[in-house]
């Protein structure tokens, strides 16, 4: 009789695949989620290939994904998971600016975005909402973003928010100080492809030189780090005209 009750309890638990490239962070998230009686972290992964393998062998109800997976991009994982497991729920848990990335993850197939600066109970509540099929965002952008996602054409956007997912990834790598060849090697694409993306980025941001782009990208990246740590003193300056 006791075994029957245990089996029923297990079925009621939300089985979570945790995808984050930092083992210590995964440990902290796992311990926080395991404190919830209706959660079970059934598997962990640190990169895209490991996550996809886990999904083939371990039954899961929800995938909790960080956007930064080493040299890989969490948005790519979202798209692959939705292609192979369309009914699986996906939630993003990351430190990046949700006003910039929330719409991107929704369009890729995730149900929402929770910033890592939020307290543990916010993440727990967001997981339950996602399992109920609700769209989850950790800011007051919900209505604005959802309206844009469900329409064919959203309002015109400018600046960094107007970059494609790949362009944004390259822009971030430029801000980290990588040169074109290094970016091409990391993304496993040709140098010509990276150069083409960089030209598109420069056009969208209104910058004229590669040096100006590097400066702008570095300032933007620094602002992202400051925001994640709660320090808002350093802000990116607009490109020089």
State the gist of this model.
With 241 residues, the protein is α/β, with parallel strands linked by helices. It is built from eleven helices and eight strands. 54% of the residues lie in helices and 14% in strands.
Number of strands: 8
| Widest β-sheet, arrangement of strands | 2-1-3-6-7-8
Write out the CATH superfamily name of the largest domain: Response regulator
Percent in strands: 5-15%
Which class best fits the helix and strand makeup?
alpha/beta
Integer-rounded radius of gyration: 19 Å
Shape: elongated
The name of the CATH architecture of the largest domain is 3-Layer(aba) Sandwich
For the termini, the CA-CA separation is 75 Å
Number of helices: 11
CATH topology descriptor of the largest domain: Rossmann fold
Summed over residues and divided by their number, the pLDDT gives a mean of 81
CATH top level assignment of the largest domain: Alpha Beta
Estimate percent helicity.
40-55%
Description:
- This protein starts with a helix and ends in a 12-residue tail after the last helix.
- The protein has 241 residues and is α/β, with parallel strands linked by helices.
- Helix 5 packs parallel to helix 7 (142-150), helix 8 (165-175) crosses helix 11 and helix 9 crosses helix 10 (191-205).
- The protein has 11 helices and 8 strands.
- The chain has a 6-stranded parallel beta sheet with strand order 2-1-3-6-7-8, with helices on both faces. Strands 4-5 form a two-stranded antiparallel sheet.
- The protein has helices at 2-12, 23-34, 48-57, 74-84, 98-108, 120-131, 142-150, 165-175, 180-187, 191-205, 210-229; strands at 14-19, 39-45, 62-65, 68-69, 72-73, 89-94, 112-115, 136-137.
- It is elongated.
- It folds into 2 domains: 2-150, Rossmann fold; 159-229, Arc Repressor Mutant, subunit A (Orthogonal Bundle).
């Amino acid at each position: 009789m006791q075994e029957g009750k245990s089996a029923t309890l297990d079925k009621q638990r939300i089985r979570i695949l945790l995808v984050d490239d930092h083992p210590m962070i995964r440990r902290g998230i796992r311990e926080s989620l395991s404190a919830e009686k209706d959660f079970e972290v059934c598997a962990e992964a640190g990169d895209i290939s490991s996550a996809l393998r886990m999904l083939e062998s371990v039954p899961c109800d929800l995938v909790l994904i960080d956007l930064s997976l080493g040299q890989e991009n969490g948005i790519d994982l979202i798209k692959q998971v939705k292609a192979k497991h369309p009914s699986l729920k996906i939630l993003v848990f990351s430190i990046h600016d949700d006003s910039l990335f929330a719409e991107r993850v929704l369009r890729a197939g995730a149900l929402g975005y929770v910033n890592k600066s939020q307290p543990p109970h916010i993440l727990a509540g967001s997981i339950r909402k996602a399992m109920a099929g609700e769209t989850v965002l950790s800011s007051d952008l919900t209505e604005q973003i959802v309206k844009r996602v469900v329409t064919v054409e959203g309002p015109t956007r400018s600046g960094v928010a107007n970059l494609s997912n790949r362009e944004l990834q390259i822009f971030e790598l430029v801000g980290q100080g990588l040169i074109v060849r290094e970016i091409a090697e990391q993304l496993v694409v040709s140098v010509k492809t990276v150069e083409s993306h960089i030209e598109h980025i420069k056009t969208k941001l209104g910058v004229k030189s590669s040096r100006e782009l590097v400066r702008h990208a570095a300032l933007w990246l620094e602002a992202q780090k400051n925001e994640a740590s709660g320090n808002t003193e350093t802000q990116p300056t607009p490109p020089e005209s």
